[in-house]
Design brief:
The protein is α/β, with parallel strands linked by helices and 398 residues long. It is built from twelve helices and 18 strands. The strands form four sheets. Strands 2-1-3-8-7-6 form a six-stranded mixed β-sheet, with helices on both faces. Strands 14-13-15-16-17-18 form a six-stranded mixed β-sheet, with helices on both faces. Strands 10-11-9-12 form a four-stranded antiparallel β-sheet. The mean pLDDT is 94.
């Protein structure tokens, strides 16, 4: 089996000063291509440590994708470490130096002398294009392993993996068929509850039921080899049935994306008023391309169900009849939500303490409750039901 590894570099990654989102993205992306990771390593900005790990992995792995350390500063050491590990010198790539010069000139800037370093790659390596940045990548074969060196900037890294690296791997190696991964996401059920309810499933060989908890959602994943697709699809309706009302979307589109598609298909607009969620709800919907009308973020203030329902109704009327979704303030371990449509106004009070969770997590839960209300409305369901462990303590319909 082809062994594919990742090496993340940089003190800021090693010491946890930044989250290694590149590693998470690459693991998921390669998995969908039939290339699951066999190992991940992280090394700081230390030349000897970098040389040692490159030499070590060159005798063990088929492919290693190295991320970071191609910048213009003194702590960017990946190219030098690669050259030392291979016993060669760094060579200037005149074409890339010219490219960088034009890059800065097009932005009305003069390239700093330190950027010249980004056009230096080990002798005998293959330069990899970077269409969105100044650091070129390169491919280097050492012992049994092909190394691909990439910059750490996520936007540059991702396009290079997709356009430069994966095609080379596909050309050089015979790859297995990508695995099948059926996904659905639930809200309002615990991981243990879902696992217990699905424990009776008789899974085919090589098929695994996985659970990913990311407050406030639980993702269920049925993963297996391509030759088991038919058996997996036969099992999937039972997984869907167990999820029941807690199922909020399937696949990877996300609930905001699902709502955006549903609103556009119905030619509906949505206006949003927020207190506790502080703009998060509007941000998530806007990023998904939802057709938003008026919106506002208000300072927290105590309200009754009747008052928040009236606010939703007034917001809708001011926006020429658009749907109106409102999140209230957090008061006495409860939150108020309201939704106004042609069918009238509905408001609920939910118990939501979550005292041991950070504020962003509590806001994410509140945003999910509001989105779930909208999802249920669009599906023709009762918006005051179907929130699982989020306990609704008061309801109002007008």
């Amino acid at each position: 089996m082809l062994t594919v590894e990742m090496l993340s570099t940089g003190d800021e990654v090693l010491h946890g000063q930044i989250v290694d989102t590149n590693a998470a993205w690459l693991a998921d992306y390669l998995f969908t291509q039939g290339l699951p990771f066999t190992r991940r390593n992280t090394v700081g900005d230390d030349l000897d440590s970098l040389i040692a790990i490159l030499q070590e992995r060159s005798t063990e792995a088929d492919v290693v994708i190295v991320n970071g350390g191609l910048g213009p500063t003194s702590d960017d050491l990946s190219a030098l470490a690669a050259a030392r590990a291979a016993g060669v010198e760094l060579e200037l790539q005149a074409s890339w130096l010219e490219h960088m010069t034009r890059f800065f000139e097009s932005r009305g800037r003069v390239m700093a002398p330190s950027n010249r370093k980004q056009a230096m790659i080990p002798a005998g390596s293959e330069m990899l294009d970077n269409p969105v940045g100044t650091a070129c990548g390169f491919a280097l074969t050492l012992n049994r392993c092909t190394f691909f060196f990439t910059p750490g900037v996520p936007s540059e890294f991702k396009v290079m993996v997709e356009k430069e690296i994966l095609p080379r791997i596909q050309q050089c190696f015979e790859l297995p068929a990508p695995p099948v991964c059926l996904r659905l996401t639930t809200f309002g059920r615990s991981e243990s509850d879902l696992a217990q309810s699905l424990s009776h499933l008789n899974l085919p060989d090589g098929v695994v039921m996985g659970y990913r908890s990311s407050m406030p959602i639980i993702e269920l994943k049925l993963t297996g080899p391509a030759n088991q697709r038919a058996q997996m699809e036969a099992l999937w309706p039972e997984v869907r049935q167990v999820a029941g009302e807690s199922l909020i979307f399937e696949g990877t589109v996300g609930l905001p994306g699902l709502l955006a598609e549903s609103l556009r298909a119905r030619d509906l607009r949505l206006c949003v008023s927020e207190q506790f969620t502080a703009g998060l709800l509007s941000l998530e919907l806007n990023q998904a391309g939802a057709p938003l009308a008026d919106g506002e973020v208000l300072a927290p203030r105590a309200e009754s169900l009747a008052e928040i329902a009236a606010r939703a109704r007034a917001l809708s009327q001011a926006a020429d009849g658009a749907l109106a979704l409102v999140t209230g303030a957090h008061q006495d371990d409860s939150l108020l939500f309201a939704l106004h449509s042609d069918a009238g106004s509905r408001a609920i009070r939910v118990q939501l303490s979550l005292a041991n969770h950070r504020l962003p997590v509590r806001q994410a839960v509140a945003s999910m409750i509001a989105q779930n209300m909208l999802r249920r409305l669009l599906n023709g369901d009762d918006v005051s039901q179907g929130h699982g462990w989020v306990r609704v303590t008061e309801r109002l319909t007008q």
